[in-house]
Amino acid sequence: MRLNPPMSMMDFFRKSEGTWFTERSVHHFDNAADESGQSNLIVKVIEKNDEKVQQVCQIEQIDPARATGGASFYWRPNLDDKEPNPDYAAILIDVPDDESGLSGKLIRDRGYVESIPVVSRYWFGKDGILTINTDYENNQGQERCWFITDDFRVRVSTVRMMNGVNLMTYCSERRCVLEQELEQMIQNNLARI
Questions:
Q1: Least CB-packed of 110, 126, 143, 170 within 10 Å?
Q2: Count of C-beta atoms within a 10 Å radius of residue 150
């Protein structure tokens, strides 16, 4: 089956909606503690008319009419079934450069590297790889993400300090099957017996 990669940020958000099991490998170049591990990433699409779009755009004084929508991202420990901690969450709003949606700005209420509001630049390559560059106050981050299948994707990122690359991260992410979907699969298999 041929994969049609998303080529706009809202398509990317829609394709990413759901819960993902993330296996993360982190390589620090300054002998910091190992942050490798497993977690769940929960992605929810935010439509253009949602009040969160206006709230996040106001932080960076960007006209919300230019936004096409966004997504909320929540991280929580793997196998944790509690509500996600808002301290491990971010809202990203898409402001494309033009009608093609191939490039633009991501307005974040909280950055990944530094927990401050930040504006990132993004673009999609012809191969469907999404690249996001973010300049923070003291760091620069770059993240690249692409889908291998509809239910498996890869993310790699680097954080650059003033004295060079500080860390690199590799994440493989598999979409989690919802309980009702799993139950339907079981019933379909039982019906074949």
A1: 126
A2: 11
